[in-house]
DNA sequence: CAGGCAAACGGACCGCGGTCCAGTTTTCTT
DNA sequence: AAGAAAACTGGACCGCGGTCCGTTTGCCTG
């Protein structure tokens, strides 16, 4: 296991759901030593370059280490494993998106009615994922941990909160996971790249889904 | 790549969606040579034993080969890759389930109204996945191909058909993928093993989801 | 400025998934 | 029955992700 990287105190899992989501683990980097910080930057830059040049598949841990003139062990110490490195590469845009729906302008940010925000949320995620698709796919952790990654937790937490406002008496956690599932990069890839659907259709599908899920009671 | 195993003509992908799903690739094994068939059986048996003894993680290709007194190359020739081997291990119950909803007694099989069948379908899949969970997780292909595996195609195809009957004017393919997403082994694992939810809650969640998704028009 | 120590480094090392191909076995043909 | 083509076999081989541990380096304290 890659557990117990000394410098990452794991942020101590705030026991129960905090009612307001903090800006996701912004206290992530516990003051690296100077050389460590420098190497971290070099590694990220090297990795980004490799992605650009040879695609995500070309991002070999050894290659990254070499390209950054750094030992292989260093890469693992810093990022834990390959997934960690790739996630670090996506971290920037992830935080950006998060900031947008936590504190940005409506309809994505607070201020709009929850259902509106859900619609906007889906569009935003779909757009962002469909760029970056290759990286998003490559960064997927092994199946057993797929839903435990901090960024994903943040997304599903947010959706849960919105759902609680929109359909208070439903099992919003489960509903949220369902919605999040629709935004899974692997699904997006399947539908757009393999089935050839245009992104607009996925967006329409999201809107329809949100509408159906947030309908309060059967017409009957 | 592991493509081009001479003996597997790839079954030629029946171009468009067949209106009636055949019993999923039942013409899979194009008459193996005698010794090959024998080795195949030995390998599956050995693999099953290893799963039972050391868990899915203990199923090393080399270990399986050794346990079956067979060369490593043989394993790969037969099953393509690790995922293929694991899927072969699950094949039996997959076909069983498929037979049940294609031709078994209602409410799972034909005869019941489509929404009824959807409810039963979810319960059946949830139950089956929650046993076998470990194997199901381990058998998961790399993200990019997750939705292309034949068994999964069969499931989502079936759901699509049922949805077309229940909500004819919706984008049933997308809706079906959403529902299938709820039944993803990785999600089941996350919710039951990591969040500690009882299976009953997931079943209730499924019913709620099906109800919401198949509601025809908003109450307004 | 010395010196001590935690943190960071780097590369040898390991195990596993996957490939390859020379040699063997089976099946088909005549 | 014999011989050749096709199919199968096994294990050496490769690359990569991940671990380990002896060595080096930056930082803080006196």
Automatic annotation (TrEMBL), chains A, B:
The keyword DNA-binding applies. The keyword Ligase does not apply. GO terms for molecular function: DNA-binding transcription factor activity; transcription cis-regulatory region binding. Keywords: DNA-binding. SUPFAM superfamilies: Homeodomain-like, Tetracyclin repressor-like, C-terminal domain. Residues 60-79 bind DNA. Residues 37-97 form the HTH tetR-type domain. PANTHER family: HTH-TYPE TRANSCRIPTIONAL REGULATOR RUTR, POSSIBLE TRANSCRIPTIONAL REGULATORY PROTEIN (PROBABLY TETR-FAMILY). This is TetR family transcriptional regulator. It comes from Streptomyces fructofermentans.
């Amino acid at each position: 296991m890659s557990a117990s990287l000394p410098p990452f105190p794991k942020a101590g899992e705030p026991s129960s759901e905090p009612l307001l989501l903090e800006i996701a683990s912004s206290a992530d980097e516990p003051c690296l030593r100077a050389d460590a910080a420098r190497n971290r930057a070099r590694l990220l830059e090297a990795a980004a370059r490799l992605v650009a040049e040879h695609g995500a598949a070309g991002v070999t841990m050894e290659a990254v280490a070499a390209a950054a003139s750094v030992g292989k062990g260093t890469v693992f110490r810093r990022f834990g494993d390959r997934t960690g490195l790739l996630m670090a590469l996506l971290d920037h845009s992830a935080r950006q998106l998060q900031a947008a729906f936590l504190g940005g302008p409506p309809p994505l940010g607070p201020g709009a009615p929850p259902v509106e925000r859900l619609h906007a949320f889906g569009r935003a995620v779909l757009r962002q994922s469909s760029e970056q698709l290759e990286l998003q796919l490559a960064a997927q952790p092994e199946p057993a941990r797929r839903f435990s990654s901090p960024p994903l937790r943040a997304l599903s937490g947010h959706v849960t909160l919105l759902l609680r406002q929109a359909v208070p008496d439903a099992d919003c956690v489960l509903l949220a996971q369902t919605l999040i599932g629709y935004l899974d990069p692997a699904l997006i890839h399947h539908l757009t790249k393999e089935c050839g659907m245009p992104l607009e259709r996925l967006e329409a599908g999201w809107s329809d889904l949100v509408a159906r899920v947030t309908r309060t009671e059967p017409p009957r």
